[in-house]
Amino acid sequence: MMVSRMPDITGQYEQIFAGHVEAGNAVAFSFARHALVAALTAAGLQPGDEILLSPLTCKVVPLAILSLGLKPVYADISPATLNIDPVHAGSRLSSATRAILFQHTYGHPGGVDAVTALASRHKLFMVEDCAQCMPHCTETYRPGQYGAVAIFSNNAGKPLSAGSGGVAVTDSAQLASRIRDLRDRLPHWKLAGDLRVSAETWLHRHLLRPSLYWTLFDLHRRMAGNYSQRPLDTEITAEITATARQPSTRQLRRGLRALRDVADIARHRTACCADYRAALGPDAWPGAPYDSGRVPLYYYPLLSDNKAALLQRARKSRIELVPWPVAAPIYPLEHVDELSVYGYRPGACPQAEALAGGLVGLPTHPRITPAVRRQIIDFLQASH
What are phi and psi of 360, to 5 degrees? Predict the structure, then answer.
């Protein structure tokens, strides 16, 4: 049984989403990883082509690339921005390089101008990974405005939590048409799968509280298969092939509801960041922050000298701190020697490996009230 969809709700959602990021076109998917696959396919990339990306990422990103027979080439990150280092990216170019993926880590845009210029000089197809960005534009915050295409995510834990759903945005009508054609070839959700996603969304919305964060984190880690290392074919099947769907009516309705609150959520996240910065000072960040008092970061980054001990104390105190990445650059893997499955050579990006071992995210989601922020800040100051 296929899930039916109101004939106009997809277009309505896409039009409103495009307006929020000031893009000409938007194409909705069930997951952002499939928006990335479609964008790279629509750009004409062929098996064997190389794409530059940051190693400080989620494993579904290299899996999406590998599913197309493309070669991920990792460029190290800048400690000041947590984003791909333009100089190191330039040194990783080869005659096979066709594209570059700029991830806004934690929603932080630092370095995007230099990487855009690099892509332009070498005629590379540039994709912005905006999965950790709010779909929201201000004078100082404009995610999705630099690449040929940008990918946003609305999964349950993402900046705009709509339960699930990814979106590709582009100003190119021709590229959008090709991406949409690829999306329309995907199967629809079956009822059982759609209801499962809806149930997961409900649980996330109604159970996830700062005080329950570690209990639910550990439960998810035990139940989810993606925390363990698996053969590449198994990984691609589980994370890419098996999840490829068009967005369901339920997803689109949730997305439309969530979009009504974009500006309020962005203001809240920005306020969280401003409070963290004011209380902890600039040294909490690995380098110089990019206007962090005016950017709605997904997490506010903190560099710890002893990440494991800090997280252990946070567990005992029931304080929500986000271990993203866990220990190795590619989330959620814990050992660098496991990353070869994703085309990463241990030691290739020393900055990313070092930062992964100390980086902790301070939460900014809507349940982080001023009182909860005060608890987090007091905990961190007492732990210093």
Answer: -130, 140
Rounded to two decimals, the pTM is 0.92
pLDDT at 288 over 50: no
Amino acid at 326: V
Answer whether 267's CB lies under 8 Å from 159's CB: no
CB within 8 A of 373, min separation 6: which ones? 272, 275, 276
Share of the chain above pLDDT 90, in %: 71
Coil vs helix vs strand at 300: strand
Rounded distance between C-alpha atoms, residue 379 and residue 314, angstroms: 8
> Between the CA of residue 77 and those of 115, 171, 205, what are the distances in Å?
12, 28, 33
**Is pLDDT of 2 > 50?**
no
Helices 32-42/60-67 angle, 10° precision = 40
Query: In the prediction, which pLDDT does 201 show?
Result: 61
232-263 as b/e: b if 16+ CB within 10 A = eeebbeebbeebbbbbbbbbbebbeebbeebe
**Can you name the residues that pair with 384 across neighbouring β-strands?**
none
Domains along the sequence of the chain with CATH: 261-383 (3.90.1150.10)
Nearest in space to 183 (alpha carbons), one of 378, 33, 372: 33
| Residues 6+ positions from 51 with CB-CB distance below 8 Å | 40, 45, 65, 70, 71, 72, 73, 97, 98, 99, 100, 101
Angle ∠(209,210,211) on CA atoms, nearest 5: 90
For β-strands 149-153 and 330-331, DSSP reports them as unpaired
Asked if residue 157 lies in contact with residue 204, where contact means CB atoms within 8 angstroms, the answer is: yes
3-state secondary structure of 215: helix
Cα angle, residue 377 at apex, residues 371 and 381 outer, rounded to 5°? 145
Run of H or E including 169:
strand 166-170
What values do phi and psi take at 144, rounded to 5? 85, 10
Beta-bridged to residue 130, according to DSSP, are 152
What is the rounded distance in angstroms from the CA atom of residue 152 to the CA atom of residue 144? 8
Question: Mean pLDDT over residues 172-188, rounded?
Answer: 97
Say how far apart CA 31 and CA 249 lie, in whole Å. 14
